[in-house]
Automatic annotation (TrEMBL):
Residues 11-183 form the Flavoprotein domain. In the N-terminal section; belongs to the HFCD (homo-oligomeric flavin containing Cys decarboxylase) superfamily. It comes from Kaistia terrae. It catalyses: (R)-4'-phosphopantothenate + L-cysteine + CTP = N-[(R)-4-phosphopantothenoyl]-L-cysteine + CMP + diphosphate + H(+); N-[(R)-4-phosphopantothenoyl]-L-cysteine + H(+) = (R)-4'-phosphopantetheine + CO2. This is Coenzyme A biosynthesis bifunctional protein CoaBC.
Amino acid sequence: MADFDATLQGKRILLIIAGGIAAYKSLDLIRRLKERGATVRVVMTKGATEFITPLAAGALAGGTVYTDLFDRESEQDVGHIRLAREADLIVVAPATADLMAKMAGGHADDLASAVLLATKLPVLVAPAMNPAMWAHPATQRNIATLLADGIRLAGPERGEMAESGEAGTGRMSEPLAIVAAVEALLSGDNGADASAKPLLGKHVLVTAGPTHEPIDPVRYIANRSSGKQGFAIAAAAAAAGARVTLVAGPVGMADPEGVSVRRVETARDMLAAVEIALPADIAIFAAAVADWRPAHEAVSKLKKDGSGIVPPLHVTENPDILATIAHRRDGRPGLVVGFAAETDDVLENATKKLSRKGADIIVANDVSPANNVMGGAANTVHLVTAEGIESWPQLPKDEVARRLVHWIAGRVPTKA
Ligand code: C5P
């Protein structure tokens, strides 16, 4: 027998197969799990039985395949509550958009969804669907909900779809990649911890806070940014397992735990610190960088001389850090995220910024004074990508950060 990692030895996996063409890969997944010493119980949705037969799945798993919530025999045999409890881990592969929507909404109108609602076990989902369905705001909303509920994702991957030949993100991860995710989850201290580390092995660069642009040694141009959102993102990325570098403008906030912090004053210092911190897998530019700086910084404090003549303040444009990094040919981070703090036409301006600055994602928020975003504890954001716009309800900044980090983790391109 081949020499496998012992993590799966004696482990009980409940595999839920939903209805998609990728279901054929689940037969191989059963084999891979079993050869590593796991026992596999299988639940199939009605849709799944259109693609593969319960007989084939049952033959590979070596037991009954459960399909029906109201089947008298199987409910008397184990029942959905026992299915939901008698395992170490539940794997949903393939997870269709429909099944994930049901999970996010707490539906329980068939055996698979009832088991998923009744369980307290760690759950790993391996989505598989057409790229347009994956990119749809409804699916992305459901994914954010599932991640916030502690559910772990494996994939989906970029590639060609089996049925249409269309390229894009939505292909189910290969069985061995799912096995690796199962092993990672089971070998963690506990399922909840492991399920919260989707950025393990990634370097995430975050900018936060305002910049100060000196007029003279005691005066500067600044803005009302508190840095709270950016600091919360850095902390959430570190909690998600990433190595995090935070380049922070002048704010009075303590270094988040486990984050390497570089403190800077001006936009030019911030750009230099960002360049030094690269390469990164993900760059999140949350800083409210001053667009302009005084053209000349006076070496001594400007004096009011009583003549009534006010000194002119000439400004010049600062480098745009986001645009500079996003337009790099070499060493561009795999995913570049910008922010758009707007007071008018929020979504329109954010959409323009996406292409003008070359970002992959713009997180837009309305910073009109009535919303109290700058310095406040809550934020209402809209996620703008080339595929569309997803709007989230008003949430505490920590929660926006946590969800955003998980949402972004699901979009990091896999290295070729
Ligand atoms: O153009 P605007 O300042 O609204 O763009 C906001 C986005 O651009 C933010 O992600 C901000 O961090 C980034 N930015 C930058 N450098 C500048 C101005 C903005 O990185 N000089």
